[in-house]
Design brief:
This is BRD8. A hairpin with a 5-residue loop joins strand 1 and strand 2. Helix 2 packs across helix 3. The chain folds into two domains: 75 residues, no CATH class; 39 residues. The chain has 150 residues and is mainly α. The longest helix has 39 residues. The chain has five helices and two strands, in the order H-H-H-E-E-H-H. The chain is elongated.
Length: 150
Amino acid sequence: MLASSVLQSGDQNWVSVSRAIRNHSTESRPHEYFSQKNCALQYGELLEKAETPKRKRSEKNEVIPVETQGLQIVNKLRLEYMQHLVEQIKKQQKDYFQLSDEIEMINGGQCDEKLKEMWEEIQESGRLYSKCKRTRCDGHKLAGVSRARH
């Protein structure tokens, strides 16, 4: 987002860059994170890591336009983000198919014994939780017991 904003607003207009990334951020970050100074510093770090564009000449000795450092940064980060999204999708698909298989096994009665064991564990953790609550336990006795089951 930072590199795209700089590409759009320029590297001298940090007010616009800061406002743009603050308005489009999905993560909760401290206010200082979006300051103009911090944006300039972060972009400077990106520029240091970027390759310096080399001018190319055609056979007719014409200068061929090359990507600017800003555009290189945006394209590289866009590619990395797309790869990250592909990995997330693959992981979610794997999880989906695994859950789908488990549902089939449950519906087919192949997990009845396992379900009984799980139910007993849930009941036991509920008893431990209730006992701990009555004695004002700080939760150390429930180590290993999932809080989601309470």
